[in-house]
Design goal:
Elements (H helix, E strand, L loop, with lengths): L1 H24 L4 H23 L5 H30 L14
């Protein structure tokens, strides 16, 4: 039983590392960064359900977590749309706080 538990933890650890690498490899597109954060939060949710899924009490917390995740992503999408309206693209390098803008 401990082997399957260690295998599950290793799988979740690999998924977290891959999602962090996905976020760090996106240097230009804001949409790619937002999607990377979405993947990271879904991996955290899957690991939470996998670890505490035996109990019935985290079900409500899981639903609250998913609802908050949807709210956060909708706000991020609205910010990205505002960025595209202002600058004309979703590239991260377009937004600079220098005086030459």
């Amino acid at each position: 039983m401990s082997v399957s538990c260690c295998g599950g933890v290793a799988m979740y650890l690999v998924m977290v590392v891959l999602s962090v690498c996905c976020i760090l490899s996106q240097r230009h597109s804001l949409l790619g960064i937002l999607l990377g954060f979405e993947v990271f939060s879904l991996v955290l949710f899957c690991s939470f359900v996998g670890v505490f899924g035996v109990m019935q009490s985290p079900v409500g917390l899981s639903l609250v977590f998913l609802c908050l995740e949807v709210c956060v992503m909708s706000v991020c999408l609205a910010l990205m749309i505002k960025l595209v309206k202002v600058s004309g693209s979703d590239y991260v390098g377009v937004c600079s706080f220098s005086d030459s803008y």
